[in-house]
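Re: that chain you flagged

S.,

Sorry for the slow reply, it's been a week of failed gels. I finally had a moment to sit down with the sequence you sent. For the record, here it is as I used it:
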Amino acid sequence: MSFVSLISLLVDDYDEAIAFFTELLDFELVEDSPAETNDGKPKRWVVVRPPNAETGILLAKADGAAQDAIVGDQMGGRVGFFLRVDHFDSTLAKLQEADAEILGEPRNEPYGKVVVFRDLYGNKWDLLG
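Prediction finished late last night. Pasting the structure tokens below so you have them in one place:
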């Protein structure tokens, strides 16, 4: 068996990112452990994931100017993340209440209800129901 276990998402602040994913999107905090960068600087190994999912997101604090420059635009302006939820309307309402940026109106597509939103750093996500 093969599967993608983690994807990496560059963030500015670990705790801010943890709060966004766990409090707003109801992800689980799977791990938050001390670690070191390849050059020996302290960092954290922080993993969040939706409940019952196998694939998690490694929240990686940007390290240096090159990484700082792409926080929030890792996909070059395209939707790069796709979150399927059981309760589309309540998840959308929670995002709106938190003043998350919603791009356009929800629409019905053959694969379900969808709307694009930005995470706290500006990355575009499809919310799918």
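What I noticed first: The chain has a mean pLDDT of 96.

Talk soon,
D.
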